[in-house]
Amino acid sequence: MLAQPLPETAPAGELGGPALRAFFRLAEHWKLRIADQRKLLGDPPESTFYKWKRQQDGAPSRDTIERISYLLGIWKSLQILFPDPAQADVWLNKPNQASLFGGHSALERMLSGNVADLYVVRQYLDAQRG
């Protein structure tokens, strides 16, 4: 019998509940509108979104798990860069003159719907941290 290789990461199903609970806490902290929450999660069907929100559990796709991972990384970077949580929240919503944002806020960039925009905001903040 051949040995099966160990998975490099936990299956997405095992991460669903913890990821969704973390996301909804983050969304509450950032005071995100429902439409924005859905956009950040990759526009799941409305019924699926409300089921996740109500149950704080589910089996989101790998894409959704990836999106939540980027959002949590953004939150962590902001907490490191701005020890005052109010400052971190202001930065997220404040127009930004960095070329990456073109005068828009980081949140506006993140709400484009593309997972790549979550990635670039995370990468930008990680670079600012040094």
TrEMBL record:
This is DUF2384 domain-containing protein. It comes from the Bacteria. Pfam families: Xre-like-HTH, Xre_MbcA_ParS_C. Residues 77-130 form the Antitoxin Xre/MbcA/ParS-like toxin-binding domain. Residues 16-73 form the Antitoxin Xre-like helix-turn-helix domain. It comes from Rhodanobacter panaciterrae. InterPro entries: Xre-like_HTH (IPR046847), Xre/MbcA/ParS-like_toxin-bd (IPR024467).
